[in-house]
Write a structure and sequence with these properties.
Layout: H1 29-90
Length: 111
């Protein structure tokens, strides 16, 4: 017996001067598995929340652009209606013929 210890020992002198193990390496196999599973679940939840936030932001931007485009289109139609009304009334009035309707007294559908 030389007093020199070989192998794993596990006594109180084992690990002196060595830094302690990281938390994910401490504990039994089952404890490490549970810790790993919880960390994986937290990462998954965090990523899911980030994707949901990006999706909500993209939808908000899309809806804003859609509302702007629809408003612009409506303004264009209103401007066209005003131009058409000005032309119609500046020509001295209108008749049903200008609207593409048959004129009264023209016979319409003759039977």
């Amino acid at each position: 017996a030389s007093g020199h210890r070989t192998g794993g020992g596990g006594g109180s002198s084992a690990g002196r001067g060595m830094p302690s193990q990281p938390p994910f390496l401490k504990g039994s196999f089952r404890q490490r598995a549970r810790t790993s599973e919880r960390a994986t679940q937290r990462l998954s939840d965090q990523r899911r929340k980030e994707v949901a936030a990006r999706t909500a932001s993209a939808l908000d931007k899309f809806e804003e652009q859609l509302a702007f485009d629809e408003g612009a289109e409506l303004r264009e139609y209103e401007a066209l209606d005003e131009v058409a009304a000005q032309r119609l009334f500046s020509s001295g009035g209108f008749s049903s013929g200008q609207l593409g309707l048959p004129r009264s007294g023209s016979g319409g559908d003759a039977a």
